[in-house]
Amino acid sequence: MAQNDEFLMALKAVNPVESVIDSYVQLKKQGRVFVCNCPFHSENTPSFTVFPNTQSFYCFGCQTGGDVFNFIMKAENLEFMEAVRLLADRSGMEIPETNNQGSEKAKLRTRIYEMNRLTANFFYLNLIKGHNKSGLQYFKDRCLTPQIIKKYGLGYASNSWDELCRMLTSKGYSEYEITQAWLGGTSQKTGRLFDLFRNRVMFPIVDLSGNVIGFGGRVLDDSKPKYLNTGTTPVFDKGSNLFSMNFAKNSSSRQIILCEGYMDVIAVHQAGLENAVATLGTAITPNQARLVSHYADEVIIAYDSDSAGQSATRKAISHFTDVGVKTRILRMEGAKDPDEYIKKFGAQRFRILIEKSRDANNFLLDRCENDIDINTESGKVELLKRVSNVLADIPSSLEREVYISRTAGKYNFPADVLKLHIDNILRKNKNTERKKENRTIYTQTVMAKDEINPEAEIFRKESKAEEEIISFLMRFPEEIGKIIEKAPADIFVTPFNKRVYSAILSNIAEHGEFSLTFLNSQFSADEISRISGISAKKQNMSLTRKSFDDCVSVLKNHVEIPKDGIISDDELKNMLKKKVNK
Fold first, then answer.
1. Type and span of the H or E element at 239
2. Cβ-contact 216, 227 below 8 angstroms
3. Which residues contact 15 (CB under 8 A, 6 or more apart)?
4. Looking at residue 255, what is its pLDDT?
5. Shared-domain flag, residues 227 and 242
6. Last residue of a domain, one of 64, 91, 118
7. Where is the domain boundary, 187, 213, 236?
8. 3-state DSSP percent of the chain in helix, strand and coil, to 5
9. Of 53, 160, 168, 174, which residue is 20 to 30 A from 546 by alpha carbon distance?
10. What CA–CA distance (Å, rounded) separates 536 from 547?
């Protein structure tokens, strides 16, 4: 679809950026803007800012910015036209027809979504109506009802070498598309397509918009690997999605139950709790923790009780702490996971277990006793070190004091000694964090190269002047005539800023106003973020005609230095003449 500016502006009008973003994260009003912890990187202090007056957003931490379309593209991992479609569906608007169907990348994503939907239906019919009943028998043995099988779209991949690939090619999908979707592979010996999922029960993975984006398959024999998940594709990244999040996000509870496996989630769901999710074959990632934080204030971690599960629990606690989500730990005595516990003791007992789940701090403190003899002097010293490290990680000082008092009483430690030890750790951590921040700032400001506008590193004064002129133009588009007269584009020094300035001038001349939306077809997502940042950083600054004139003067007085650094007498005379005439 070619960019239809009139339609896009109408779509943008019914999808205010603050309203759309607030449906993903909790915004807090701060004067004329809204702020929150950035949904795109981990942070403790809100640096993500939404500007209703310009219908834009910008994170001063990770430098991501843009308008409502850019937010949807980033949050949902979509191409521009896919973001347009999502917002159109959200607001009930019909997209105008066009002969241009979008970029090749967007076309491939659309084709993969189609293939995944067909494949999910293919596997489901194989399970329900196929001759081989081993998949259906597996689910029956796991006590799943026909209703829950249908709700999750569970399926079966037969042991055929290329049954799925033959079906997809018959529907017109190419070998390239099938392999890009991670549904088939190409044999190095014969060059023929073969199915990647064979003799497995299948679990479709659905995103928040209801698209099938990938699959998980459990083998029904002794083959390895036991579980096989879709690899990275243009529509799927296992570190950024969660199984059953499409159901859990609709739960009225602001609580998520985090499980390890597909069957655990489905068993919990069948027991009447729809707020369960699972990672996709890996320990939880920071991206997944941030995703959960959009829908929950508290997570109950229901990982397996084995050593691997407990290790994963500690990592999960850390990731959820980073995004401000409280954690509680489920202790399942007599069963290794939620699926087994529900089968043994029933759904009601599992609900009681959820209510009695312990907070993460107690879980971590209890584990401090592992592998040491607390009755010996060396054991007590080691215990003191371990509990101090746990208590120092509690962000709330009030909450930390409560646990210090409780822990001192439990182990008969002098409370003042324990507190002194924790204060020392906090002091060291603070110094370490400050040094880390300084290194980051130095790296970002001194060492890091500006990939978007590399000339800005050479012409720092000029690039700052250019950005102020661009900001002035964005804020006062009605003064375009005077602005062009005083600051024609050819006085700009850095190519990127010149391109931005020219594009904004062109769009204001055409539309009579400025909007980031007009630039989406001309600039990349990273470039849009930079442009959004230029505007955001000047929001609270006074942009006067005097400051504008000063910036114009800086650019007009710019001296072009030859590459060899040698200026001839004639060139020097010409420079002096230019300065006199200005």
1. none
2. yes
3. 68, 87, 90, 91
4. 94
5. no
6. 91
7. 236
8. 55, 10, 35
9. 53
10. 18
* 3-state class (DSSP) for residue 410: helix
Determine the 3-state secondary structure of 57 from DSSP.
strand
Are 306 and 262 in a shared domain? yes
The answer to whether 18 touches 71, Cβ cutoff 8 Å, is no
Q: Which residue is it, tokens 């005539």?
A: 481
Cross-strand partners of 155: 202
Q: At what angle do helices 347-355 and 338-345 cross, to 10 degrees?
A: 120
Q: Which residues contact 240 (CB under 8 A, 6 or more apart)?
A: 77, 285, 287, 288, 291
The enclosing domain of 277 has a CATH number of 3.40.1360.10
In a domain, 97, yes or no: no
Does one domain contain both 231 and 247?
A: no
**What residue numbers bound the domain in which 30 lies?**
5-91
CA distances from 224 to 199, 214, 221, 307, 512 (A): 12, 19, 9, 22, 63
Which residues 6+ apart lie within 8 Å of 80 measured at CB? Answer: 69, 73, 106, 520, 521
Q: Identity (one letter) of the amino acid at 561?
A: I
Assess if residue 556 is contained within a domain.
Answer: yes
Q: What is the pLDDT of residues 521-566, one digit of tens each?
A: 899 999 999 999 998 988 766 778 888 999 999 999 886 655 444 4
Low-confidence ranges of the chain (pLDDT < 50): 1-2, 99, 447, 563-567, 575-576, 579-580, 582
**Burial label, 386 (beta-carbon count in 10 A; 0-12, 13-18, 19+):** middle
What one-letter code names the amino acid at 409?
A: G
| Domain membership flag for residue 98 | no
Q: Which pLDDT score, from 0 to 100, does residue 2 have?
A: 47
CB of 247 closer than 8 Å to CB of 255:
no
